[in-house]
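Trying the structure run again after the queue cleared.
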Amino acid sequence: DPADIDGIWLGNFNSGLVKDGFASSLALNVDDRLRFTPATRLENACASGSAAIYAARDAIRAGWAKTVLVIGAEKMTAQDTAGVTAALSGASYQAEEADVSFPEVFARFARKYFEANGDHSLTLAKIAAKNHANAMKNPLAHLHKALDVEFCNTVSDRNPMIAAPLRMSDCSLISDGAAALVMVADERASAFDRVVRFRAAVQVNDFLPMSRRDLAAFDGPFEAFRRAYAAAGITVDDLDFAEVHDCFTIAELLVYEAMGLAPRGQGARAMEEGHVMADGRLPVNLSGGLKAKGHPVGATGVSMHVLAARQLTGCAGEMQKAGADLGCVFNMGGSAVANYCSILEPAG
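Done. C-alpha cells:
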C-alpha cells in the first residue's frame, strides 16, 4: 500500500543527460497517496542505484523507517553519443581526466593489464559472448542478440575499435531504464511471501585520480569483496551466483580477480575453466550483465539487486540458477572508485 511507504530513495546520475535535475519527487506522481512522503535523490556515478539502496537500508536500521521504496532510473537516449560521453565524463577526475572518455578510461586499465599479463583480447571477447548468450534468456535485456566469440574478437565495420584494445563489443550499451524494490524492517518481513535479506553490505571508495592507482588491478573492488566476505562469514566458494559491474569487458575480467575467482593477473582462468559460465560453479551475470542487459546508469545498481533477489526466490525464469541460496552483487561508480558489494540470501 503506498500509504505504508515511509520514504523514497532514488538513484539517478543525470549529469546533464536530461534537463530534469530535481527528480526525487517524480515518484509521487505514481499515486496521490505518496504525496508528502520524504524523497531523496542519491548520486554516486554508476553506483547511484546501490547508493540509494544502502541509504534506505541505513534509514531502516536506524529505526527511522519501516517500509521504503527504492528506485533507480536513467534516461540516456535524449542525448546523442557525444552528449552521453560528455555527461559520463563528469564521473572522472577533471583536473587530469577531463578530456578522457569512459571507453578510454577503461582502455587504460586494459592496456596496463595487457602490459603486465599479456594480450587478453580473446578473453574479453569470450566475456562479451558469454553475457550476450545469457541475455537471450532475459526478457528485459536491452539487446537480445547472440554474438559469438569470433565476432567479438574481430575488428570490423560492425565491431569497430572504440578505444584500443576495446572494441564496440567490449562496451556496454547506452540505455534508458528503471528498476524498483521495496525494503522493510525485519518485523514486517513476515507479511511478504518472497523476501531476501542482506548478509553483508559493504561500500569502499578509492582515490578518484587514476594517477594514484595501479590500473593493472582493481584494488577498491578487492577491498570491498574482502570486507563483504568477512562480514558475511563466507568465501567466494560459498557463492552460488554473482551479478557484477561489467561496464566494459575488462572490468569483468578484473572483478574475477578482485572477488577471488583467480589470482591477480590470472583472471582468464575463471573463463577458460568454465567457472563463470551459466553452467559453471559460479555463474557471473546470468542476466546478461551491463554489457547486454543494458546500463542505464542510475538504474543499474537497483536492477542488479532485483535480479539477485529473483534468483534467490526462484523467480528468475529462464535465467534461474537451480538451488541458488547465496548471491553477490557488485556495483561500482566511476573507474572502480565507488564500490558496493552486497551478499544476499533468502530470509527465513
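The chain has a mean pLDDT of 97. Worth checking whether this holds up in the mutant runs.
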